[in-house]
Amino acid sequence: MLDIRLKHLRKINNHTQQDIADLIGITRPAYTAYEQGVRNPDYTTLIKIADYYKVTTDFLLGRADENEDELVLATCYGRKVDILMHNLNNSKYLTLEKIPLSTKERETLLVSLEFGIELVKRMRKIHEPVEDTND
Fold this sequence. Notes:
Blueprint: H1 2-12, H2 17-24, H3 28-36, H4 43-53, H5 57-61, H6 68-76, H7 80-90, E1 95-96, E2 99-100, H8 103-127
Helix pairs in contact: 1-6, 2-3
């Protein structure tokens, strides 16, 4: 699980393996071995990685959220909005600026996101090209 999450976090943050290796103070081959599942980082390195990405070590190790495996894989395929909606509906441990969200705050974000999705759908309909039927 660690290897999948490291690769996922690196890619969604648009970093190279060398970027992350430099940030946490290791060699690129060492970091590559983490993403390939060949080696595991020591405790200090794991904490540096978690701190950099602003996630918990439990998340990196696959111990957070019951459906997190599916969410990580789904994000790799571009379903970030679906994942956010799922998390807002189901997770008890979401934070904003490192402060846990209350039930009311989660509901507010969910309603806002649903409104935003509908707005984007309407904008897309307005800007869709009209097919020329005169061919």
